[in-house]
Amino acid sequence: MSRVGRSPIQIPQGVQVEIEGPVVRVKGPRGELSRSFRPELEIQLEGDTLRVARPSDEPKVRSLHGLTRALLNNMVVGVSTGFEKTLEVEGVGYRPEKEGEDLVLYVGFSHPVRFSPPPGIKFEVDTRARNIKVQGYDKELVGQLAADIRKVRPPEPYKGKGIRYSGEHVRRKAGKAGRVT
After folding, report:
1. N or C terminus: which one in the chain shows less Cβ crowding within 10 Å?
2. pTM, entire model
């Protein structure tokens, strides 16, 4: 059996889980998430524990076992504590700003790049350290939005300028070697 799929999910205080066939709704202090899962797998709620069971050992069902459990766990963690991705802006003249709820990036283009947060997402900007925090209760949405922000100006290998994830290592290249006479 799948090691990930076998482990139970503990439901913290203040989180409610409703199972209606293949649809699971998770409601907590940070928000509400709903997702439809494949009907081949059985999702069982036993007190304050959520379990995913598979009826057979077919390869397709086996491959969905751990995935379903991980998605359910992300839903429970998201509505209780939330998720966060941190990005760093590096480069001379590059800076992030927050205007109202929107994120505005000045990263060397002739125009500023503006991001409006979708529902459930919040931006925090530290202008001194030039950090951007993307926070929300949907792990998928937080990760996708952070990737979209990074895609505006990915870090380049010569000077390291651009937007990178916090802790991301950018492999540096040597510039041109001067001509020796």
Report:
1. C
2. 0.88
